[in-house]
Specification:
- The structure is a single chain.
- By secondary structure, the protein is of the alpha/beta class.
- The chain is built from 14 helices and 23 strands.
- The strands form 5 sheets. A 9-stranded mixed beta sheet has the order 2-1-3-4-11-10-9-6-7, sandwiched between helices.
- Strand 1, helix 1 and strand 2 form a beta-alpha-beta unit.
- The radius of gyration is 26 Å and the shape is globular.
- The structure holds xanthosine-5'-monophosphate.
- The site of xanthosine-5'-monophosphate has 10 residues, from loops.
Length: 517
């Protein structure tokens, strides 16, 4: 792999994704990894990420300088560029000149291998206080800005390069090309990582792990569990049984999409548990959000366990027990729980609302090395329906936490109808790729006066919460076109009973969370 050394900011994952977009497999390692640990991973390239610190601050994240003696092509980015400069005998200084955001950079000569094929002047995204004041001996300066004379450097002989700006962010005009030049031209790596290869590799791995054993998988209706199960099915066929709990908090047609479209396209064996009444009864009279979440989690485990017990009994009776459980764990969960090194202990990510911990299954996690967009690509390659593969994130507790107030069958129906209209109009307007998700919330405990037809109404407001985000950790409200908002509002107030007002949530995260509860 190409190893991305993480200096503790958010950049490492983004860089790893960009490397994969260039067709090269990448993994993230912490900056505390020793040169020997890094060498043991047989890296074909190393990229040092940006970071929040100043290289000469006490306690600044450092790197074992032996990494620079491995003979592996290396690219330093921002903080990583400065770490590299310092380790190789260059100088880093605080000149008091800072650069944040869009900055004009000028190539020196033709920009060398790293910046070859790029315009002499370009817009790059900067975020730094310190700067490299002198390139290491044997390195040429490849670009500069008005505040930063050494904005990029390189040595073809050592196959080491660095840029002060962030080529991984979309705001840098030719950023992806910097990464591609490094990978393909400087390190000589072919672009051969793609979803077809990932499927073949995972199918082989799953077969090896599972053998003739039986496997179960809880489907949530979301992308991750759907793709994980499809991969396992591709590998071991009907040794896999999927369980889908209908808790009644799903969106319109979701159960049918799983039971019909998903099953038809994958051929998986599916057991659906209709637990709608059980959940409604458990939620009766409860309006506190945390309490709702706890109840939904608890009831989910109950229904899942009940389904599981009967399957376990059935399997045990014919002599081939169920020994494996599929989880749709993604790479960001692995990295964020300290698993980037491959040695730290890994938290099990519960993507279907928390699974029983006392059952001793061995986990099958075919998406552990993948980012969300890669999971979607694999799902498409496996022929899964777009309604599932393209689905936006949806919380495990479902519509239960999108009704502010008590959850009742009646309120669920109102919210489902309003949500379906909003989603339909957003899709029709071609906005699905622009928004991360758009929760639709029913303020069931709020009423306002309206006038519809000839009469006064006293109905409930629906809130639209469209957000843009890279990872749901932070988000901004999406500036939807007014005509789309108007259409959604018109249709909801006309077509959904008891709703006489539609309001737009214009809060970023932070301070507001994406969901209302
Ligand atoms: P918040 O509301 O915390 O949501 O800004 C961040 C992201 O997580 C989703 N979300 C959940 N997903 N189980 C889940 O699987 C949950 O309990 C849950 N709560 C929130 C939310 O939709 C958003 O994408």
């Amino acid at each position: 792999p190409v190893l991305v050394v993480d200096f503790g900011a958010q950049y490492a994952q983004l860089i790893a994704r960009r490397v994969r977009e260039a067709g090269v497999y990448s993994e993230i390692v912490p900056h505390t990894a020793t040169a020997a640990e890094i060498a043991a991973k047989n890296p074909v390239g190393i990229i040092l990420s940006g970071g929040p610190s100043s290289v000469y601050e006490p306690g600044a994240p450092a790197l074992d300088s032996g990494v620079f003696d491995l003979g592996v092509p290396t690219l330093g980015i921002c903080y990583g560029f400065q770490v590299m400069a310092q380790a190789l005998g260059g100088e880093v200084a605080n000149t008091g000149l800072r650069e944040y955001g869009a900055t004009d950079a000028a190539l020196t000569g033709d920009g060398g291998v790293l910046l070859s094929g790029q315009p002499a002047a370009q817009n790059v995204w900067m975020s730094h206080g310190d700067q490299v004041s002198k390139a290491p001996a044997g390195f040429s300066v490849l670009a500069s800005t008005s505040a930063t004379p050494v904005a990029a450097f390189g040595s073809d002989e050592r196959r080491m390069y660095g840029v002060q700006w962030h080529p991984e962010v979309k705001h840098s005009d030719h950023g992806q090309q910097v990464i591609e030049n490094f990978l393909h031209k400087a390190a000589g790596l072919a672009a051969d990582w793609n979803s077809g290869n990932v499927i073949a590799e995972q199918v082989a791995r799953i077969r090896e792990q599972v053998g003739t054993g039986r496997v179960i998988c809880g489907l949530s209706g979301g992308v991750d569990s759907a793709v994980a199960a499809a991969l396992v099915h591709e590998a071991v066929g009907d040794q896999l049984v999927c369980i889908f709990v209908d808790h009644g908090l799903l969106r319109k047609n979701e159960r049918e999409q799983v039971e019909n479209d998903y099953v038809a396209s994958t051929g998986v064996r599916l057991v659906t548990i209709d637990a709608r009444e059980q959940f409604l009864n458990a939620l009766a009279g409860v309006s506190d959000p945390e309490q709702k979440r706890k109840i939904i989690g608890r009831e989910f485990i109950r229904s899942f366990e009940a389904a599981e017990k009967s399957l376990l009994a059935e399997a045990a009776a014919d002599g081939e027990p169920i020994r494996f459980l599929v989880q749709g764990t993604l790479y960001p969960d692995v990295v964020e729980s300290g698993g980037g090194t491959g040695t730290a202990n890994i938290k099990s990510h519960h993507n279907v609302g928390g699974l029983p911990e006392d059952l001793q299954f061995e986990l099958v996690e075919p998406l552990r090395a993948l980012f969300k967009d890669e999971v979607r690509a694999i799902g498409r390659e496996l022929g899964l329906p777009e309604v599932i593969v393209g689905r936006q994130p949806f919380p495990g507790p479902g519509l239960g936490i999108r009704i502010v107030g008590e959850v009742t069958a009646d309120r669920l129906e109102i919210l489902r109808d309003a949500d379906a209209i909003a989603r339909e109009e957003l899709t029709r307007a071609g906005l699905d790729s622009e928004i991360w998700q758009c929760p639709v919330v029913l303020l069931a405990d709020v009423r306002s006066v309206g006038v519809q037809g000839d009469g006064r109404t006293y109905g409930h407001p629906i809130v639209l919460r469209p957000v843009s985000s890279e990872d749901a950790m932070t988000a901004d409200w999406t500036r939807l076109p007014y005509d789309v908002l108007a259409r959604i509002s018109n249709r909801i107030t006309n077509e959904v009973r008891d709703v006489n007002r539609v309001v737009l949530d214009v809060t970023s995260k932070p301070p507001g969370t994406i969901e209302w509860e």
